[in-house]
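[Archive record]
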Amino acid sequence: MTASPQSNVSGASSAPETVKVWDVFFRIFHWSLVALFVTAFLTPDFSETIHQGAGYAIAALLVMRIVWGFTGPRHARFSDFVRGPRETLNFLRDTLYLRAKRYLGHNPAGGEMVIALIASVAATCFSGYLMTLDYFWGVKWIEEVHEACAWGCVALIGLHVLGVIVA
């Protein structure tokens, strides 16, 4: 993301300053999650080993992202972008009227999306893990919950990409 042009002493405008918002961990986490989710989503009937391995790797990434949300740099911290419902609704209204404030990092709607994605991915991982336990082995409703959570992730990913395009 770039900032607005800065005026120098003579009043002439200089080139825009580049501002690094997303740290290396965040970038690696994000694109690893994308690759692993696609792998898990495309392999449940093809290879149980690959599917489960991708699921466990996603769960590990999720734990690291949650820790990073409390200990990472400013724009990675939940405290930087998780806001209340009123501020999020006001932001969405302002976006609709093309007058929304710009943010470095996540805007209020993006912050809500982060929480929704973390919850949805966590539910998918947890329901997948339950399917490996003897108690839930072959239990149809757990399989249905797992599949519904995965499709919920797909829907949220679609909204996430749309939000990035709009922003």
Remarks:
- DSSP finds six helices and no strands in the chain.
- Residues 140-166 form the longest helix (27 residues).
- The chain has one domain: 24-166.
